[in-house]
Task: structure prediction
Amino acid sequence: MSDFMDGFDLASLRLGGAVVASSDDYFAEKENLLKPGPAVWLEHEYTDKGKWMDGWESRRKRTPGHDWAIIRLGVPGVLRGALVDTSFFRGNYPDSCSIEACAERSDAPLDRLLSPDAEWVEVLPRSPLAGDSKNAFSIESPYAFSWVRLNIFPDGGVARLRLYGDVVPDWRLRGHARGEIDLAAAEHGGDVLLASDMFFGERRNLVMPGRAVNMSDGWETRRRRGPGHDWAIVKLGAPGTITRVELDTNHFKGNFPDTCTLEASASSSVKDATFAELLPRTKLQAHTRHFFEDELAQLGPVSLVRLAVYPDGGVSRLRLFGTLSDDARRGLGVRRLDTLPPRRARAELVACCSAPKWLDAVLAARPYGDAARLFSVSDEAWAATGPEDWLAAFQSHPRIGERTSARSWSAREQAGMDAANDELRRRMAELNQQYEERFGFTYIVCATGKTADELSSILESRLNNDRDAELRTAARELHAITRLRLAKLLEP
Result:
């Protein structure tokens, strides 16, 4: 088995994956690509279109081109590998395939995905396929995607498609990372790294969405015939303080654990982890959702949790609710920025500052790894800019007092102007005109937290500067604005 196949299948139906479109699925429906479980063969099963096949199969192409299917990943993530399974497709499998990926919003309409403006990145170049085989391909791309397009050349059938990788949640679509969230949830970046035994049930079932549908949809060990106990180690999506736990033994009736404990560690490395007791050894019940809050120790931020079950048995779900520190939330923002494809990353940074030399330098420094390095890179890049960069960046800023989209950063930064009366707005417009006639560029000020009267007074006082002094003053203000906007960019 390829190493990448030990990761999450980001396209899994359980995580919300879907095949939303294809060029053709005449013989077998595109939705079959993501069906759980292996494909099956029914020797004498036919439909009115031809042989029944458990997969996606297009008709024989008689024109130039190739067939394709577009898949929405259940959770965005960095792709590590793909399994293109052609089981039972023997004389009708594609000659080759390629894979492209896109980071458009997961709720983007199809016409947006098919438009020339969509940024599709080839993550697997055209590669030969074998029929009736599990074709495994490693993918090496540093970017996180929400969509995948499987291209087959020129036509034919694929039984199953699995897309393995690391989850990178888009917190802006999920809502936010403030307050209490399930830090262990797969859709939030949680994972189950290791388990002592998985004879009856896979370890990652513990952190999947929803409640288990049956006994197979949980983590279950074989019957222990010797001393000891079973365990699983959960990695949280981000370091957090655990405030509440839900442990569900749904469907486990004659095979639930007798007792359990929870331990936690601040280390992100299992090898270096030292675990402390989070939940003391506690009696469990069959087919029950157990809730723990007062029983939990106050350990502060942790990254790993070890669930121990005595002596063995099955648990369907483990929810570890908690809160993130400001640093942890910024870490999520940095992770998102580090994994954006180039065009989208540029668009996000342009919204912070459009100075060309600054923009190129900050983009070239990815990945940043943490917020401190991003701000350090930004400051160093800004120090290398000059008047040409400043003037270019000034052009993208609206005038103070000018009405802009209520959702824009400029509108929020200039919130102090909301209380300005008509007379003050007219005065501000006059001052803006005088300023631009005198200096030849827009009045730039870090408006966050300032009242309309303050903004007007600052503008009036700066009219007394000479042009070189004012240009440098405006540049310092723009640098302050840029730092504030970078901080906002990192807030999930």
Remarks:
- The radius of gyration is 28 Å.
- Residues 104 and 113 are 7 Å apart (CA to CA).
- The longest strand covers residues 67-85.
